[in-house]
Every structure is written in C-alpha cells, then in structure tokens.
Write a structure and sequence with these properties.
The chain is an alpha+beta fold and 278 residues long. The protein has 2 domains: 26-155, no CATH class; 163-275, Nuclear Transport Factor 2, Chain: A (Roll), CATH 3.10.450. Helix content is 21%, strand content 42%. The protein has 6 helices and 16 strands. Strands 1, 2, 8, 9, 10 and 11 form a 6-stranded antiparallel β-sheet that branches. A 5-stranded antiparallel β-sheet has the order 3-4-5-6-7. Strands 12-13-14-15-16 form a 5-stranded antiparallel β-sheet, with helices on both faces. Helix 3 (170-185) packs antiparallel against helix 4 and helix 5 (197-208) crosses helix 6.
Length: 278
C-alpha cells in the first residue's frame, strides 16, 4: 500500500491552501510495515518532546504532501494545524524529533491501527545538523518493520505572532465572541459579516451547491458550542491568533482561531480545536 501524493491540500473551510510548488524541503522514502510514503516536503518548528511534554524539542513534520511552511507558520500550535489541515486518509505525516542543538532523538507517527509509534528512537543514523536556522542532512533507518532514507533542508519557522493582546483578546477577541454568538444561533447574516473574504468564497460555493447547512455545520464541528473563553492572543496589523478553550456536549475543547483584518474590522479566517487532555 502506498500513501498517495497530495498535491492540492485545502485548509478546512477557509479557502486557503497549504500546497506548495518549487524545490522540496525533504526528499526520500519512509516505509512502515506495508505502507510506503514518498516524502515530498517538510515543516520544522520548535515544540515539545513527544516523549517528555515538558522538554523543548525541534520537530520536523515530513509528509507526502507539498506543504507551504508559511501557511503553517501563522498558527501558534503547528502540530495541531498539521494534524487538522495536512494529515488525512491519503496524506501521511511523520514527526521527527531533534534536541534543541539539532541532534536526532526519535520519531512519532500513526498511519493506521497497529502501524505507528507514539515515540520510537530506533536504529537511526543521523547526519542532520542545525546551522543558520536550518536543519539539513540525512537520516537513515534500516530496521525490518520500519525503514527510511530521507534528506532534509528545512528552515525553522519563526515564533513571531505579533504583540500580545490584552485580557479577552482585545478587538479580535470581541469579533470572535460575536462569531460565537452568531454561530450558536445559526444567524447567517451575522455570520457572513464576521467571516473573512476567503471564507466567504467557500460560503458562496456551498450556497450554489445547496450545501450551506453542511458548511455551517463544519464550522460548528471545530467550535466549542456550549461556551468559549479566549485564553490569550497575539496580533499584527493584518493578522491575529487567539488561543481558546471551551465546552461542547462531548467535553472540553482547546484550540486556536485565525483572524484577518478586512474592511476595517477583524474577520474569522479559520478555527481548529481538539479535545483537551485532562
């Protein structure tokens, strides 16, 4: 079984794309049991270890999709963005973990039931070096159940999201809470006034296909429909990211919201969330 090459990957309900053209930031093949993934690109960022959540790490997400790193850079939680917007049934993702000095530590992935690893060190030969803000070099593993030969040349994403917002997220937070109220009421007029131009393109397409209820339902699926709280946020003149938490019928969600400044106001461009671990 070979994971298909994803060359046109759309962000959830936002109309933006993570797909990229041009030179590859990663090349090679990753094999695990009966699945082969042809590696086409990578995104590198600072995060936490999959083995020890309190330990800083450099994470390189390799995938068979062509991913634009800058599209991922806008998100505060890059792992959540990749899990929500890159990984799917046809698109595999393997997370390579390095120590802050660039030395290899292990990997994490899940392809299907019985084929994955929460954290494995394995028998990997790493020639990857951290220099000039880039992770470059090769990794080779020739174990019976898992093998790979991958070359990386990928820059680390910057952790710059703008100035910290005040309590409640400032003006972007107010716009998001208005979006929350409109979404709960299924108030279409209010929702349209609070969505970004890219979201409105998807709205118009769904309306033409008679699928507007599904589109709004997809928005609700990533949203804490019972209650929501803006924990903190960051903003530039053009973009804002809010870190949020809230309650659903099924439990507690945490995630983030991307907003853009358009028409002299803040508009919701994307929302991603997952159930919070207790």
């Amino acid at each position: 079984m070979k994971i298909a090459i994803a060359v046109c990957l759309l962000l959830f309900a936002a109309g933006r794309t993570l797909a990229a053209d041009g030179g590859e930031s990663a090349l090679g093949t990753f094999k695990s049991q009966g699945i082969t993934m042809e590696v086409r690109s990578a995104v590198a960022y600072r995060g936490k270890s999959f083995l020890d959540k309190g330990t800083d790490a450099l994470i390189v997400a390799i995938t068979n999709a062509r991913v634009r790193p800058q599209a991922v850079a806008d998100y505060f939680d890059r792992h959540l963005a990749i899990e929500k917007h890159v990984k799917d049934a046809q698109t595999g993702v393997v997370y390579l973990e390095f120590r802050p000095d660039g030395t290899y530590r292990g990997l994490s992935y899940y392809f299907q039931s019985g084929n994955g690893c929460g954290f494995c060190s394995g028998e990997v030969t790493s020639r990857v070096k951290l220099a000039g803000g880039r992770l470059s070099g090769s990794l080779i593993d020739r174990e019976p159940d898992r093998s790979f030969d991958i070359t990386l040349d990928v820059p680390l994403l910057a952790d710059e999201h703008g100035s910290a917002l005040g309590s409640g997220g400032g003006a972007p937070g107010k716009a998001y809470l208005a979006y929350h109220a409109a979404l709960l009421k299924r108030d279409r007029a209010a929702l349209k006034a609070l969505l970004s131009s890219e979201q409105l393109k998807t709205w118009a397409d769904a309306e033409k296909r008679g699928a507007l209820d599904k589109f709004i339902g997809d928005l609700v699926a990533e949203h804490p429909e019972k209650s929501v709280r803006v924990e903190r946020g960051f903003a530039t003149n053009e973009k804002a990211v809010l870190l949020i938490s809230g309650e659903t019928q099924a439990g507690t969600l945490s995630g983030e919201v991307m907003l853009v400044r358009e028409n002299d106001g803040w508009r919701v461009d994307d929302e991603i969330a997952d159930f919070a671990l207790r």
